Amino acid sequence: MKISFNLIIGIFTVMLLAISCEKTMPLSPVENELLDGPIEGLTIEQQIRFLRGDEAFSDVFTIEKGLGPIFVANQCASCHPGDGKGSPFVRFTRFGQSDTLGNQYLDFGAPQLQHKAIPGFEPEQLPAGATFTNLIAPAVTGLGFLDAVSDADLIALSDPNDIDGDGISGRPHWNNIPDYVELRPNSISKNGKYISRFGKKGAAYDLLHQTSGAYNQDIGITTLFEPFDPFSGLVEDPEVSTQTVNDVVFYLKTLKAPIPRDVNDNDILAGNQIFSQIQCASCHMPTLQTGYSPIEVLSYKVFYPYTDLLLHDMGQGLNDDYTEGFALTSEWRTPPLWGLGLSKDAQGGSYFLMHDGRSLSIQSAILIHGGEAEQSKINYSQLSETEKQQLIKFLESL
């Protein structure tokens, strides 16, 4: 068969272009350097739903779509860039009071300060007498695993009276829950309250509770679940469909867990040992297990979040004189440490750690710990410089 000269030249040109593009195109990031992406094993239908939720999570709200009239942000992704941590440049303020008798400032816009407004409206101001705390948004990866941990397991991890005498007295956040949430399988009740686990003080029961509240309090969007307009206080028609809210919840449940890096590095292996030796693992528990989940790939899985999902007294240095639900002013839910080393990617290249982003390094964050973590902080300060570097290298590998 005779091949024309022009065809040969054409094939050769395409090959050269392909080679050239391969050399000049940036390399795709490897999976363990990304926080976003679905967990493995989703069905085709679930993958489609994941993508719908992903799109809704990035949807930008305008006045025509219901934004405001007062708000904090105009999309979910602006607080959780790349599904990672937020920064003080996109922070939010919660206000109320220092006791646990219920927020007495709900008629003044509590619990969230909407510090932005659409044209023609004024943003909220903190009312006189209210206590407040400034917060940055957490990373949202791996949340489905945290959601599926059983109540019984969390109760087993707790030691509210420090019976074992180790100075750690974590406790579940037993809280009132909204009528619209669906209880987890085998949920446990205590005096009419249930264990909540999401948010800085663990005040949200599940991801539907958390997501509906965020639409309402962060963006000023009403839903079937949270129908009260945060500006007027009146019931409004849903500005986002129930299907969309549920798709976002599904997206959050099925985001993959962060993947550790360089796990066989000798310094990282040493840092892992130090992490346990200085008692960090007492609260930041490396391993948890899910119970039953309606999403099959989440059921009965061992995972590695470095949290116990419990409330701990963190001392006066972290006492913001503000509470949510029945968490005390110095109590905070143990934040997961997985994905810590990727935080800077979402935070503009710098660390902003702790609940309000006040710590600009991992060491600074460790040294702010107090209360139940006081001994761990002392243990850290007594490490050699090499051991400190190994510990931090381990934490950055998570």
Class from helix and strand fractions: alpha+beta
The sequence of SSEs as H and E is: HHEHEEEEHHEEEHHHEEEEHHHH
**In terms of per-residue confidence, which ranges show pLDDT below 50 for 5 or more consecutive residues?**
1-20
Shape: globular
The number of strands is 12
- Number of DSSP helices? 12
The percentage of residues in β strands lies in 5-15%
Sheet with the most strands, sense and barrel status = 3 strands, antiparallel
Average of the residue pLDDT scores = 92
Output the strand order for the largest sheet: 3-2-5
The radius of gyration computed from the alpha-carbon positions, rounded to a whole number of angstroms, is 23 Å
Tell me the span between the first and last alpha carbons: 59 Å
Number of structurally distinct domains: 2
Give the % helix.
Answer: 25-40%
Indicate the multimeric state.
single chain
